[in-house]
Amino acid sequence: AKANLGLCASTGSQGAHPGARMALCSAEELDKPSAAREFFFAMAKEARRTILGPLSPKCSLMANIKTVLERMLPEDSYQLASGRLHISLTRVADGQNVIASEFSSKEELIQALLCSCFLPIYCGFIPPSYRGVRYVDGGFTGLQPVSSLEEAVITVSPFTGELDICPRDCPAIFFCFQIFNGSIQISIENLCRISYALFPPSTMVLNDIFSQGYQDTALFLYRNSKCHPKT
C-alpha cells in the first residue's frame, strides 16, 4: 500500500499501541504490502475463537503477538528500526511517558512493541518489560506522541478527531475532546470503533476498515500533492 501511494522512505515513524506496529512497518519499509494487514487479521481471528474474545483465559493475546512478530520481522529488524522508529511507552513505576528509539537486538525491539501494546487487565495483570523496566501502552500518556520528532509530522488515528489522516464522520454533530495528548470526536461511529478495537469484528468488516484507511490516506496525500490517486 505504501508503494502504491507513491510514498518515499520515512525519516521517522512514531506510535503508541497498534500505531507502534504500523510505524514499524513504515520504518522498515516492508516489501510485503499485506504484511501489516495479515498481522492484524491473524490477531483478530485468534481473539474471535471464544465468546469472551481477548478476555477469555484461553486467549493468550500477548503470546500470540510475540509469536507473529518473531515470524514476521527479519533478524536485522532492530538495525532498520533504530533511530527511525519511536515507540511510546508508559513507565509503570511513575506513570511517565518514555520514547524507545534505539534497539540492540530483535528481541529488544519485540519487547518494546509488546510493552506498547499492553493494556492492564485486558492483556493481563503483569506488564512486560523493556531493558529491565516494566511499561504499559504509551497511549495512556500520549495518544499522538509527536513532540520528539523535529520533522513535519503527519498524524494518523483509527478514530475521528482533529488529525491529518483519520475516518471522516458526519460533521453535523462535531465535538472533539482532548485526552492523553490526543484528539477524539464524540460520535456513535467512534464508540463503535472502540468496541471493534477491544473485540475484533469479522474479516469482512476488517477489510472494509482497511480499505477506508487506504482511501483516507490517498485523499490526504492527494490534497497535499504527495501522490496522484490511482484508478
From TrEMBL:
Domain of life of the source: Eukaryota
Domain PNPLA: 1-150
Pfam families (UniProt xref): Patatin
Positions occupied by motif DGA/G: 137-139
GO molecular function, one term: triacylglycerol lipase activity
Cellular component terms (Gene Ontology): cytoplasm; lipid droplet; membrane
Record-linked InterPro entries: Acyl_Trfase/lysoPLipase, PLPL, PNPLA_dom
Keywords attached to this entry: Lipid metabolism
Gene3D superfamilies xrefs: Cytosolic phospholipase A2 catalytic domain
GO biological process, one term: triglyceride catabolic process
Keyword Cytoplasm belongs to the record: no
Protein name per its UniProtKB record: PNPLA domain-containing protein
